[in-house]
Amino acid sequence: MPVFGLIDGNSFYCSCERAFKPSIQKKPVVVLSNNDGCSIARTAEAKALGVKMGEPYHVCKERPELSDVVWFSSNYVLYGDLSRRFYLSLAERLPKVEPYSIDEMFIDLSGFDDVAGLCALLRSEVMRVAKIPTCIGWGPTKTLAKLANAIAKKHTELNGLCDLTNEQTRKNWLDRLDIDEVWGLGKQNCAKLHKLGVRTIADFVALPPEHVQKLLSVVGKRLQLELKGQSCLSFADMETNKKSIATTKSFGRVVTQWKEMREVIATYATRAAEKLRAEGLQAGYLSVFIHTNRHSGDPYYSNQRGAVIEPTYDTAVLITESIRLLKPLWKNGYRYYKAGIILNDLSCLSNQSDLFSTYDKEKSGTLMQVLDDINARYGRGTLRPSSTALRPSWGARSAMRSPRYTTHLDEIVKARSW
Amino acid sequence: MAQKSGNDNYNGDKTTGFASPAQDYVENTIDLTDTLELRRPSRYLVRVTGDELDHRGIRHNDIIVADSARAPRAGGVVIACVSGEMLVCEIGQDKRGWYLRPSRALDMPVYLSEHIDASIWAVAVSLVREEL
User: Fold this and answer.
1) Do A406 and B42 touch (CB under 8 A)?
2) How many domains does chain A have?
């Protein structure tokens, strides 16, 4: 009988900020999206004050009742490193840990005698080592583990732990929970079910399986089985094939000059190429998009273009191709707000024929290796194509970013000797 | 990850005239990241401010390697959170329990309990001083 667990960080980004700043331990904390746009993570205290998910910062900061809130720009360098520590502190104790997202991991709890005791230990361990408070839910399937985790989060009296392995306990919860609590069901499917008068998860589980399959295809049928306690989803490998690699960001200020936009696209292409090489992949399809801000009252313009390219991971090639695609998209006189590069048709380097290659792959490989090595050693952007910008004026605003405490020696946490 | 670039790939091995007798004996540079186990999930670097712990050889601007998984030892040095502030100080233990020991005679020791805003954040394990 397998036992799946799901452990996730409570308001993970906010907890990362608190880890190095004990003075905000009890304060309402909110982390803002790229460009200090809107709230993406809130502590319980901030939620209680009425800060909504996705609420624009420029509106919030004017509200007098939110004057005590501590705001942060997103600091993904820090969150990524604490996610690593979170994962490792679990991996030291468990046979299998699957990082599902930056702040939640599936864990294999099969075969342990005292699962509740183990989970309590894991929580305190992650708290101690990675400084992140967590909740853990577990059950006989991944879907039930996810559900148990949601219950643990909502019901603080459970002390961060929820066990759905027992059938009777499960039944009690499923009777009380709405179907939109189910992981992976989706809004549209919930609407379909609501039309049929299906409200609770118990209602959904009671539907005839063939009926569910007709209505929600095989995915719905699998979810129903999982909710009944029959495991259909096993642990995924980390090396799942990526479908695409994207670098898309809104700017810290509007871009109006062609020269700047060219710099933006070259910079994004450089970053996308780095991501590509880090995965050992090459791309055979490239698309570029630019658009203005739909909500600012500026004249709206949005356009994109894609093209099949010779499979490559070479920064220079990708920059040239991106600029070629960008040229016809560019229209003078608009106030551009966001741009992006998306790489598709990804393949491994090994299974490609170089028969029709128009450039020297070996030379390109050597050059890229040197570029990546130097940047790994001396910091990102040490060596870069001259068409890119290192500290661009169009870069994202992050006026309230905390120090990168764990990855930059000149930003490590300070402690006063006493 | 290869850490070579440009002309820094001579390691006492590839010579142009006489073959180097050392070519089968080349080893890597000592890596303090390994020595200080900085990749462990519980290891953090902390910058010291102030000279209060000078008597322990810990000075302003030193870097402490702290371990958040390590159990404290009486007489050791810890990073503690006290009333919302990060401190570096000695830790002691007596019949009343664990306490943070002040360096200055006029400060009172801080006993760690549920009821006060003081906790151990990590235990100091090594010390790095960039400039002697």
Assistant:
1) no
2) 2
